[in-house]
Structure formats: structure tokens, C-alpha cells
Amino acid sequence: MSGSYDVLMVGIGGQGIILASNILGEACLIEGRNVRGAETHGMAQRGGSVEGHIRIDGKFGPLIAPGTAQLMIAFDMLEALRYSHFLAPEGHMVVNSHIVIPTSVFMQGAAVPEKEAVQERLKSRALCLVDADALAVEAGSPLSQNVVMIGAASWFMPFAPTSLLQAVERLVPKKTVEINRKAFELGRAAGERCREGSSDT
Amino acid sequence: MTTQYLLGNEAIVKGCLESPVHFVTGYPGTPSSEVIDILRSLPERDFYVEWSVNEKVAFENALAAAWCGLRALCTMKHVGLNVAADPLMTSAYTGVTGGLVVMSADDPFAHSSQNEQDSRCYALFSRLPCLDPSTIQEAHDMVRDAFALSEEFSLPVIFRPTTRICHSKGDTLVGSPASVPRKGEFHKNPQQYVVIPAHTRVLHRKLNQKQPQIKRALVEKGYNHAEVRGSVAVVASGIAAAYVREVLPPDVSFMKIGAYPIDEEWLGGFVRKHESVLVIEELHPVVEEAVRQVSGGVAVHGKKDGMVPYEGELSPVIVARVMQACGIAPTREFPNPVPAGDIPNRPPILCAGCMHRPVFYAMRKVFKDGIFPSDIGCYTLGLQLGAVDTTICMGASVTVASGISHSGEEREVVATIGDSTFLHTGIPGLLNAVYNGAKMILVILDNRITAMTGHQPNPSSGTNAFGVPVPPVSLEAICRACGVSYVETVDPYDLVSLLSVMKDARERPGVKVIIARQPCVITARRAGVRRGRFQVDAESCTSCGLCIKFGCPAIEKSGEKAHVNDLCSGCGVCVQICPAGAIRKEVKR
Q1: B336 neighbourhood in chain A, CB within 8 Å
Q2: What single DSSP character describes residue A85?
Q3: Full set of structural domains in chain A with CATH
Q4: Nearest CA in chain B to A107
């Protein structure tokens, strides 16, 4: 066994996945643990589908094998579905309850994916849906949705919540620390409801 | 020493600063670009750094600095080494006095590249030492020590990380930057620096004579090491070595190759202690070929007997399956889940407000039957808009266009190239096209930046790598100096002018150049440009779908009608496309 706790983050280029994965990496340093990560740079970032692998306690390569991730944090429901096969059968999924429709769908006149249908397909997993966009606005900035997601997912990661919050404070721009602290707490409260009900909120 | 969570390229920067490096050059290319971007953004530095116009230029500048006794780093992606190959090959003959490290970042799986070539082959070809890290920590340590190694052997050293090193992250132990300033001094020595035949024959012999000591030293320094544990062995290199270690049972011998050339005697001694050896490496079977040469009857598995794929990147899953197939039980078994089907793709796409989109739109309108050679940059995404017919390598849009025009093909040839790519290797092609009387149109997509790789400045940007203002080069003057008489500059957001210039150019003879100029929408936004958004008046919208076909991510369908979302950057091109006049400036209520 590799002995690592593997987290896959998925979303769309530009949604702040790199910062989110850095926060998990920093939390590992705070707790004195090894960590490996892999992320998408370059052309794929131009609005394309992107993935970030974070292996808490990882000592070997950075890549998570399909079917073995303990947790998926998805910034878009369609991307959650696209990468859902990466999740281990007992794994958890924390998903932002929004869909950005790929431009190609409109251009090609293809069927527009319906939110309800996507949610139905995700339901075979332990699913925690979080309205991160709304909570980020409530925290003070729509840009803080990645920190909302980390707060929500904090229940499913082997970190002390204080380590995650400390990592957030270290990595976000100084002017936005207060907003992001609030974003983390709002996300954490939303995640707690999932944990109790173990379904969508 | 501190432990930090670093991107591979950040760890490489730390290693360079600890060495320390004095002189840095390079041309942007994924996955290598962050190294110079981080170095040039440091608040304090006592080294020289430049973004060069291409890799050959970068290499020669760095070589000269190393001839003057400095420690020099030259960065590029793997295909950049093709451009720099001319000086690289002969630099092995001349050698260096300071340390020269050539970072050539390979891209197995071509995540962001036009091919999957292996820079280690250049090391064999040139007979230069090559370091191939398997972890981020090793990347840091190797590049830190590579400068001294280069000085020890008086040879440039090739440093070859791959995408999964450059763009992976890990906890990394790093030291403090060193400050050992050096001032360049050139000592004349024609026997070394002037490679006329009489000198070069001697230099070639010297290069060959160095090889045995290099091979021994690389083993002694621990870059290549082996652990004998059983009758079966796995030999691995690069990131594949990390994948192997994740699943390797304790009774299987393991050898990791991290440096080339490999000492054959040492390698043979290891191989012949086993009944069978499995070689796992990405891309070219460099290690496997060496193992097979010394195997002396030991069974060798790898690419050549079909066990390991030649193409793409490896992963723990692939490595475990290969081991299984070769009779080695991996310590971990992986499931084989089926991805969810019926999900629309989400490929990368030109940004909302990107200046390339209206150019492609206009080309399709004016040259309905045209042939569209293109080049390397964000604009290669014009493929999705039906406006990219060829892409092969940097600068080849111009030359492929002239070649097609001379071939007897009668349709119009309209090539596209970005500003940075034109300055990189496009100019000689344009000169050649004019000189030899081609009939073609070249559209220079001048967004004033090297956008795709992360917005590095180039000579058309108006700043250098430090952000110091420099006069931007005149693309118009360059084209005219190449002999082009028709050079027209147009704002691509002005669709009417764009269409009329293209129609005008079509009627002219010879080589015509259209320069479409508008800053990259990302750099414009960072610089504070705010144009105000547009919106669709649902009552006027006739649902004709023309704006949807334009392919802007800011335009979506809401029911049957078009809708402008908040990605809109206010370029206003869609206003000129809408036949019903339904798209208007957003009115804040």
C-alpha cells in the first residue's frame, strides 16, 4: 500500500485549483507530513477541464490511480462526473452545485446537460453538494469559492481544521485573509450538514 | 535548510540559486517556462537573466557566458533543443570553463507539445552528460550540483526533467541562496573556440577521451545506484523510478538510472547477477538499449519486446500491469473503473475577447476555399474554428504556406503566426517567401506577448524580462525589410476594417502581410483595461445563432435566445456579427 490519503481536485482552468491544492500542501507542511501533488499548467488552462492530484503523506510519484482517490473536490458538477471514476468505492465527493456549460455544446447545438440529471448520476457516490458560489459571495468575494470548497471538504481530510485554516491564511493575498477565513468557516458549516446527513444539502 | 511545498520548477530555481547561477537565458515552453519567470521576478538578484528570441540564441548567449567563466543556465522545452541543436553539438567539442546547464524539459504524453521526443537522445548524440531527475527533491539537488559537474568535466550538462517533475509538487528540503559573484573574462584560445577543421578534429578526440571518467564519476556521485535483492531486477529512470518504487516488492532488485552516459561495466555487473531484468522508462528505450548491450544472455524485458509502451507517459497503474505481465507481483493492485460516458468534452478554448477569434472569423468569411497553415501558440486553438490546417513547429506557418503556393495548389494560402513565434523563427521564412516569389498572405497575430506559456515579454512587448521598458520592435519595418510591399496593420476588434483589408490583400500579387494588433485580453485586464460588458436584448434577438457560432465563451444560449455571460470582456466583435442589432452595451440599472 502507498499509505497516502489521495485527494483529486477537478474543475475548469481559472477556477483557483492551483491555490486550493497549495493550501492542502501547506497544511501537510504545517503538520510535518510528506506530500506529493500534480497539476495542469499551460494551454489546458485556457478554460479547459483541469485536474489536481494531492497525495497527503505521499512519498512516491504524484499521480493518483483511477478508482483509488479517497476524496474528490469538484468545482463544477460536470467535471465531478467526468472524473468520478477516480474515486474509490468508499470515497467522498464534495461538489460545487454549479455547471458551466462548455462553449462547444452551444456551437455544435448538442444537448445541454441538465443539472438535475448530472446530480442524479453523481448520487451513486457519497455526495456533498455545496453552493460555493453563493457562500463565497456571502463571505465577501466570489473569488473565495475555492476556500469555501476546502472548508466544506475539511471534514473528509486527515487534517486538524486549524492546520487548514492556518494554511489558508498563509497563502491567500494579505488583503483577503478576513474574507477567506469567513469563506472557510461558511464552507465548513455547509460540509458539516453533509456529514450528518451524508447527502446533499 | 527548510522544507517547502514546491512546484518542480520552483525547486529547480532554488537549486540554481544555491549553486549559485550567474547568467540565465531561455525561450518559454511548457513545461519549462516557470524557471525564468520565477528568477526574473525575484525582488533581489545578482545574476543576469533574459528571455531570448529563440533557443539557439539563448543557448549561444549562455555558452558565451560559460566561456567567460560564469555559471550559466539555459532553459527550453524539448523541441527547443532542436532549434539549439546546432550550437549544442559543437559545444561538446569546445567545452566550457564556467558551468553550463542546459535544461531541456521533456513532455511525455505531449500534454502541451507537438511531439514526444526524448532529450536523452541528444545527450547520447552529443556525448554530453545528462541528469534525469526522478523526484522534485532530486531535481533540486541535481541542478544545484550540475554547475559544478559541468565545471569538473569542462562540458555543458543537459538537465532533463519531464512534465511530471516540472509541474508536480512535493515537500522539498532546500538551502539558502549562495552569493558567489563572478565577473566574466574571456581568455583567447583559438584552438578551443575556433572550430576550424584542424582544431575540431583534436577537440573531437578530447571529447571521446573524457567519456570513461564521466561514466565512473556519475556512479561514484550516486546518480546511478543499484540494490541487489533477488534474482529478478527492475531498472528504471526519471519519474518512472518513483512509480516503480511505489509498487516494487522487497525481494526484487532495483536500479535507478539518473545520469548518462551509463557506465557499461557497472551496469553489466548488475544485470548479469539476475535471471531477468525489466527496464521501465518513458519515451525512447535509452536505458533498455544499454542494458541489452551488456545483458550477456540475461532475459531483458522492456519496450523492445512489447512489454512497455513507447508512447505516452507511464503511471503507477501501467507500471504495475507491466510488472505483472513480466511475472513480478506488484505490492498494490489497482482497480480498472470505467469512466462515466456521455459527457460533453471541455477542451481549452480561446478566451472571451481574444483578438485571434475575429481574425479566424474574417479569414473564413473572405477565403471560403482557403488553406490555412498556422503555428505554435494560443491561436493553434483556431483549429476548433476551422481556421488551422497545419501546425508542425515554430515558424513553419510561413514556410508551409510558401511551399504550398509553389506546389501548384491553386487555392489561396493564408497563414497565421503570433508575434513571438514570428520573431522566433518566422522571419527567415518570410524573407525566403519574398525572395522566391511565393503568392500568399501572412497574418501576424500581434498580441504583444508570448501568451500561451504564461505571458512572457518578447521584443514586441515594450519591456524586457525585468519589466524594464525597451522600444518595441516594429513588425511592419521587419516585414518591409524582408521585401514585402503590402504590409497593412489593422485592429481585429474592428471587423469591418479587418474584412476589407483581407479582401484588398487577396487582390494583390506576391507575399502580403496583415498585422492584426490588439493586446492579449488577459494582459489588458491585468493592466486595468475595462471596456464594459455587452448584453443581448432578448426581444430583438431572432435566435439566428450566428453569434453562438462565433464560439466566444461569453456567449451562450438561454432557451432559444443568445445570452452574454459575465466572461464578456467588452471587445464588441459580436455586435458587428449580429444581423438584428440585438447586442448592445450593458446598461447598469
Answers
A1: 66-67
A2: G
A3: 5-197 (3.40.920.10)
A4: B549
